[in-house]
Every structure is written in C-alpha cells, then in structure tokens.
Amino acid sequence: MLRRAQLSVFQDFQRHTASFGLTPAAYSVLLIVDGQPGIRQNRLTELLIIKPANCVTLIHGLEKQGLLVREKVKVSGRAVALSLTDAGRDLLARVDTKVQEHLEAMQERLGAEDYRQLIRLLDKLVASGDDGLGDGSAQEF
C-alpha cells in the first residue's frame, strides 16, 4: 500500500510540475541544496537515502541544465560541495508554487485532519527508522 500511495503522490506531483521537467528526486536535490548551500555530495546522498551513483546521475543532470554547480572543497580537494545557480534558485521558486498546489491537492483528497494524521504517522515511521532523518523530514517532501 505504501508503494501504491507513493506512486499516486508522484503522479500528482508530475501532473502539477510537468512543465518544469523535474522528477520528485531532482526537486528534492534542488530543495536540499537551496536550504544547505555548499552541502557535500556525500551528505546529500545520505539525506536522499540513495546510492552514490544515482546521486551523481541526478547532480550531473541538474548541472547540465545549469541549475547547480559542483565545486571541489579546498580543504580536502576530493569532497564536492554543491550550490544552486541563479537559474536553479529561480526555477525552484517557480516550481515551489506548483508543489504547493500539489500538496493542497493531496490535502483535499484526504481532508485536513487525515492529512495531518498522515504526516504525523510518516514522521513517526521516519523517526523510528535507522536513517538519521527523525527530524520531521516527511513534511518537507
């Protein structure tokens, strides 16, 4: 049921954001990097709970679109810090409006109280997991 619910939410997300050509994962990358400029690539991988190779693919695609930049961290020379470009920040601001519409549509489908309950339950699942995201992250994605 969780997988089917995820597919339903992703389909609605795509319906609202199709004109921007972003997947939920790409949007998540932009959102996280915007909130944490200079975040290291390995930390982003941890937050997204995805394989490093998949994160590299996501980052490469967003970089190719001119939405974010990778810079070597001077201290280590190996770690990569990520930041949004002006175009990335602009796109994120425009997409955020549509994502808000998507969230409102989800709330409408469930009703306000059931929506709040779902968020509480998702937060509880995340907090009880072993992923280090027990900080209310369910509300952000």
Q: What do we call the CATH homologous superfamily? A: Winged helix-like DNA-binding domain superfamily/Winged helix DNA-binding domain
Mean pLDDT: 88
The proportion of strand residues reads: 5-15%
Helix content percent band: 55-70%
Looking across the biggest beta sheet, what order are the strands in?
1-3-2
What structural class do you assign from the helix and strand content? mainly alpha
- Major sheet: 3 strands, antiparallel
Count of alpha/pi helices: 6
Q: Roughly how many Å apart are the termini?
A: 18 Å
- Gyration radius, in Å: 16 Å
**Number of DSSP-assigned strands:** 3
- Note the run of SSEs as H and E: HHEHHEEHH
CATH topology description: Arc Repressor Mutant, subunit A
CATH architecture classification name: Orthogonal Bundle
Unreliable sequence segments: 132-141
What does this structure look like?
- The structure is a single chain.
- The chain has 141 residues and is mainly alpha-helical.
- The protein has one domain: Winged helix-like DNA-binding domain superfamily/Winged helix DNA-binding domain (Arc Repressor Mutant, subunit A), CATH 1.10.10.
- The protein is built from six helices and three strands.
- Strands 1-3-2 form a three-stranded antiparallel β-sheet.
- The longest helix is centred in the last third of the chain and has 25 residues, at 86-110.
